[in-house]
């Protein structure tokens, strides 16, 4: 216990020294500092925040969920001049103890605030945050981990999914569409519920095929493109001509199946017509935008300004926390109808279900 206290004290002192001396560590970014009038360069001011970010499975580079969070961190690095940021990634099949160890390591090393990307960190955030009451924690996609130093950044995924469900139904020539979920947990069921409701709002008789890649506690469904491809191929063989995925890195396989099967695909989280591999971008009709980048940046900005609040912050259609993408122009011809539905959701005229009937 004494060793832990000494370690934490040392990390805190070092962190303070870094801020005092204006040191820019590995995550620093002074590239936008402007020269002073006299010709010498004046370093940009730093927020002094050493940010720790723990990704879900797949990490930076998954072209979807984690990359959206990474984009928020990158924006904060550039605009808030963070002196240091450390990124760590979960491994498939790891234990709860391993997640706790990752968060505890960041806190012990003086990182504050710390963001956990994904509901899988719920238990570990709640436990470790209690051990470090002076550190601010944020968790994305979870409202169960509560505490005076925990901010819960959650989204109305069902609202955004409703809109891409409308798009799928309007674009489907076979009146047969598919949904591929990464892991069957309540969060991903929200995507399915909204997607199905949106499609049924257009055509109550449309066929919606749904399948999940894995069941908890197996979470590899978020990072298994081969399995995503196999499942999507089965849906296309069964008549689906539009397939929506909420499966993280597994979505790459869904896109491959759509490409090979002359179908269209719907991406998730990021605008995947921009982020996916070049060979499959042309099959992505639209994406359900879940703006993790906005949530991450907002949290870091509030930390820098001393205005961080514990508890839920909900990113819904009303605050543009979710939306649909228009890259490639494939939904331009139905955009007016999509906007009509969006207005009805925002006004409350349409109540989008977050669970399946």
Report what the structure shows:
- The protein has 357 residues and is an alpha/beta fold.
- It has two domains: 50-155 and 293-317, 3-Layer(aba) Sandwich (Rossmann fold); 157-289 and 326-347, Rossmann fold, CATH 3.40.50.2300.
- The chain is 40% helix and 19% strand.
- It is built from eleven helices and twelve strands.
- A six-stranded parallel β-sheet has the order 2-1-3-4-5-11, sandwiched between helices. Strands 7-6-8-9-10-12 form a six-stranded mixed β-sheet, with helices on both faces.
- Helix 6 (186-202) links the parallel strand 6 and strand 7.
- The chain is globular and about 55 Å long.
- It starts with a helix and ends in a 10-residue tail after the last helix.
- It comes from Sinosporangium siamense.
Structural class: alpha/beta
From the coordinates shown, what is the CATH architecture of the largest domain?
A: 3-Layer(aba) Sandwich
- Total helical segments: 11
Q: How many strand elements?
A: 12
Extract low-pLDDT stretches: 1-46
Question: What's the CATH C level of the largest domain?
Answer: Alpha Beta
Order of helices and strands: HEHEHEHEEHEHEHEHEHEHEEH
Kindly report the spatial arrangement of strands forming the biggest sheet.
2-1-3-4-5-11
Classify the fold: give the CATH topology of the largest domain.
Answer: Rossmann fold
Give the CATH superfamily of the largest domain. Response regulator
Major beta sheet summary: 6 strands, parallel
Helix content: 40-55%
């Amino acid at each position: 216990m004494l060793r832990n206290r000494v370690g934490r004290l040392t990390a805190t002192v070092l962190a303070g020294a870094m801020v005092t001396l204006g040191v820019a560590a590995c995550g620093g970014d002074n590239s936008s500092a402007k020269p002073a009038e006299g010709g010498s360069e004046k370093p940009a001011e730093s927020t002094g925040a050493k940010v720790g970010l723990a990704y879900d499975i797949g990490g930076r580079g998954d072209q979807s969920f984690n990359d959206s969070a990474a984009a928020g961190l990158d924006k904060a690095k550039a605009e808030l001049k963070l002196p240091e940021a450390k990124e760590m990634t979960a491994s498939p099949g790891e234990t709860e103890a391993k997640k706790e160890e990752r968060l505890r390591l960041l806190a012990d090393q003086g990182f504050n605030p710390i963001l956990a990307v994904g509901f899988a960190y719920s238990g570990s955030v709640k436990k470790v945050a209690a051990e470090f009451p002076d550190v601010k924690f944020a968790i994305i996609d979870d409202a169960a981990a509560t505490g005076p130093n925990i901010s819960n950044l959650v989204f109305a995924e069902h609202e955004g999914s409703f809109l891409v469900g409308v798009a799928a139904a309007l674009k489907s020539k076979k009146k047969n569409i598919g949904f591929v979920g990464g892991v069957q947990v309540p969060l991903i069921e929200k995507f399915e519920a909204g997607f199905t409701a949106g499609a049924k709002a257009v055509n109550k008789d449309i066929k919606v095929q749904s399948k999940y890649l894995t069941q908890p506690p197996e979470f590899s469904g978020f990072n298994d493109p081969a399995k995503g491809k196999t499942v999507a191929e089965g849906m296309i063989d069964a008549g689906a001509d539009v397939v929506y995925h909420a499966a993280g890195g597994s979505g790459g396989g869904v896109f491959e199946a759509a490409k090979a099967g002359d179908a269209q695909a719907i991406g998730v989280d990021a605008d995947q017509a921009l982020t996916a591999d070049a060979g499959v971008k042309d099959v992505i009709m639209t994406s359900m935008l879940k703006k993790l980048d906005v949530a991450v940046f907002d949290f870091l900005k509030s930390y820098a300004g001393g205005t961080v609040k514990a508890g839920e912050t909900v990113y819904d259609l009303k605050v543009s926390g979710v939306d649909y993408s228009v890259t490639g122009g494939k939904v331009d011809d139905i955009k007016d109808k999509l906007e009509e539905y969006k207005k009805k959701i925002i006004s409350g005229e349409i109540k989008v279900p977050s669970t399946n009937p």
